[in-house]
Amino acid sequence: MKATVLYGPRDVRFEERPTPKIEKPTDAVIRIAATCVCGSDLWPYRGLQPVNEPTPMGHEYCGIVEEVGSAVRSVKPGQFVIGSFAASDITCPHCRAGYQTSCANREWMLRAQAPVLRVPLADGTLVPTPGNPPADLIPSLLTTSDVLGTGWFAAAAAGVQPGQTVAVVGDGAVGLMGVLSAKQMGAERIIVMSRHATRQQLAREFGATDIVTERGDEGVARIKDLTQGVGVDSVLECVGTQESMLQSIRCTRPGGAMGYVGVPHGVELDGVELFFSHVHLHGGPAPVRQYLPHLIDLVWNRKINPGKVFDLTLPLEQVAEGYRAMDERRAIKTLLWP
Amino acid sequence: MKATVLYGPRDVRFEERPTPKIEKPTDAVIRIAATCVCGSDLWPYRGLQPVNEPTPMGHEYCGIVEEVGSAVRSVKPGQFVIGSFAASDITCPHCRAGYQTSCANREWMLRAQAPVLRVPLADGTLVPTPGNPPADLIPSLLTTSDVLGTGWFAAAAAGVQPGQTVAVVGDGAVGLMGVLSAKQMGAERIIVMSRHATRQQLAREFGATDIVTERGDEGVARIKDLTQGVGVDSVLECVGTQESMLQSIRCTRPGGAMGYVGVPHGVELDGVELFFSHVHLHGGPAPVRQYLPHLIDLVWNRKINPGKVFDLTLPLEQVAEGYRAMDERRAIKTLLWP
Q1: A240 touches B: beta carbon within 8 Å
Q2: What count of CB pairs under 8 Å joins A to B?
Q3: Cα distances (Å, whole numbers) of residue B276 to B68, B206, B253, B254
Q4: Is A270 within 8 Å of B272 when comparing Cβ atoms?
Q5: Does the distance separating the beta carbons of A270 and B285 come in below 8 Å?
Q6: Do the Cβ atoms of B111 and B20 come closer than 8 Å?
Q7: How far away is chain B from the Cα of A279, in angstroms, using its nearest Cα?
Q8: Crossing angle of helices A216-226/A242-250, nearest 10°?
Q9: How far apart are CA B49 and CA B45, in angstroms?
């Protein structure tokens, strides 16, 4: 098969790779129905994270089970399935506590921008949909694999409750899914920090009530203005830079909470500032597996339409253009059809 | 009157100072029944926090109201009262959210190691006891002003629930109060990190079930051993150094929580480590005012005996010896009688 490999900064190739096979009794092999490019793929693509050797890419996926190992019980060939970006056993203490991305046997998924994918720990990782989905649902189902699950975790980690005022820092795909998630959780007011007209528009469709275009201290001051000087109840940090983390903490009221899901790059938090902020912090790699059944249900019953976040759709063989468009911010998120 | 003034590292003097008076209509003046030396007083005492001018000391207090300003409604002369180490109005949005130590009109109390104290915002700061307390209750009542309230907040911020396994990092007075608090909140197993026999003994009296004498990575490994490799559900960070913060985060299970109340000194938290830890963080200056009614009730009804934390009692005029004994770790906490 041909699949996606990153050779170095801005050097994405679609080239011949061995077709994956069952390697362990707990594996499944699935034929990918759709995959996509993640904001986190852009860190190595931009050279901000080292790439020391040709690296297969992709960790968001859904598709049809082709084959399962002898120990697999909960999925079978022919089923349409979705899995998290991290394989998990769902039986270890961390999984049972709901933190499957800290599973004792965790394996990061790394080769999903391809037509065929081997999924380890299939019983703990894959969730079947109620049936074979209509084609128009596939983009939304695909989002549950990471980007929606991650936005959902940001809102959950920030403790979003009905009636609250919420800020979302980051207008990328995860931030936009954070808006949708906060709305689903009943937030009354959702303030999004964004300078991009198309993203502002989508944020409003997903439930944003206010847009703040200022950044840094000015952005914080604007949010304080919008909240009578108090700050927001919850903030969703969906970027992962020092500036975005500080901005998030500083716009939150004492006793409020920050859910942070942007993979941190160069972030160092000062103990004294954290201490006197009185802000709750929680975040990390989203335990998507915990949310998959609920999110699949919301999509399946057409209660949400997160697939709108894909504003560029390409055949998988044009994956390099998919990366380019996101790097240049011409696209929010690229969906790839094998 | 004579009161306590810090002139520089290890230079505590008990010297003539103006007797405080009502300055604003919202003030009260109280005659101190008992005060004490706080672990946080040792930072400037040891020269680890600059002292640029002679600085009156003390922020833990209880006593009898002598006089109130014309606007004070909730306390009156003759009442025995206790207040937080931070004055608050309890009407601003942060106070109403339970974070009185982030009150919009907060004033740190700074002159309580004295026979007489002016308390600003008396209506929002002071809580009367049900009556005039018997002398043997005064030490325990005094602890509610800061050290017990702070340990209580550490446990509350760490989300301690019945049946949980909890670690306490720090065997100072706050850590010991954290043990008592976690026990009150129903923790089943309370692991205390301590190398000092007398503190270990007191920790056991307050509810500790396990003592870990190792520190740093070895301490973390020991706690992991004690929890089948999983880590604790909640950790109370009661020191405030880089080592104690990291030790706390690292001994906590993914999805667990750290309550941190040690005033941070030189703490910088790495974003990547926090992210992958999956640990909830909450802390800051304890909103003691929130807990005062409940803690006074527990003491008044002799359900808890936190006053045991005072293992040295001196007349106020010997305050310098009180500091010395704590600095040299001859005493856990010094109570001072004016």
Answers
A1: yes
A2: 114
A3: 52, 33, 11, 8
A4: no
A5: no
A6: yes
A7: 6
A8: 20
A9: 8
Q: Is B240 on the interface with A (CB under 8 A)?
A: yes
pLDDT of residue A47: 94
The pLDDT of residue A306 is above 90: yes
CA distance A144 to A184: 15
Q: Which residue has the tokens 């602890």?
A: B143
- CB contacts of A270 in chain B (<8 Å) are 267-268
Cross-chain Cβ contact B267/A271 below 8 Å: yes
User: Looking at chain A, which runs of residues are DSSP E strands?
Assistant: 2-8, 11-16, 28-36, 55-56, 61-68, 80-83, 86-87, 107-108, 116-119, 126-128, 165-169, 189-193, 210-212, 232-237, 252-260, 268-270, 280-283, 312-315, 334-337
Q: Is the dihedral of CA B200, B201, B206, B207 positive or negative?
A: positive
> Does the beta carbon of A245 lie under 8 angstroms from any beta carbon of chain B?
yes
Q: Does B163 touch chain A (CB under 8 A)?
A: no
Contact (CB, 8 A) for B235 and B251: yes
Could you tell me the end-to-end alpha-carbon distance of chain B, in angstroms, rounded to an integer?
A: 11
- Say what the pTM is: 0.96
CB contacts, 8 Å: B174 with chain A: none
Residues A144-174: pLDDT tens digits?
999 999 999 999 999 999 999 999 999 999 9
**Contact criterion met (CB below 8 Å) for B127 and B82:** yes
Check residue B49 and give its pLDDT: 87
CB contact under 8 A, B271 and A276: no
Q: How many CB atoms lie within 10 A of CB B242?
A: 15
Classify A32 as helix, strand or coil: strand
Measure CA A132 to chain center. Answer: 23
Instruction: Please report the residues numbered 274 through 303 in chain B whose beta carbons come closer than 8 angstroms to any beta carbon of chain A.
Output: 274-285
Q: Spell out where B121-164 has E strands.
A: 126-128
Instruction: Walk me through the domains of chain B, giving residue ranges and CATH numbers.
Output: 2-146+287-337 (3.90.180.10), 150-283 (3.40.50.720)
Contact A253 B277 (CB under 8 A): no
Are B275 and A282 inside 8 Å of each other by CB?
no
Query: Do residues B117 and B30 touch, judged by C-beta distance below 8 A?
Result: yes
- Whether A105 has its CB under 8 Å from any CB of chain B: the answer is no
Asked if B82 and B126 touch (Cβ cutoff 8 Å), the reply is: yes
Q: How far apart are CA B112 and CA B4, in angstroms?
A: 8
Helix, coil or strand: residue A67: strand
pLDDT digits (tens, 9 = 90+) for B40-82: 999 999 998 899 999 999 999 999 999 999 999 999 999 999 9
Tens digits of residue pLDDT in B127-175: 999 999 999 999 999 999 999 999 999 999 999 999 999 999 999 999 9
How many Cβ atoms are within 10 Å of A330's Cβ, its own excluded?
A: 13
d(CA A335, CA A35): 6
CB contact under 8 A, A271 and B274: no
Partners of B230 on chain A (C-beta within 8 Å) are 93-94
Q: What are phi and psi of A303, to 5 degrees?
A: -85, -25
ipTM: 0.96
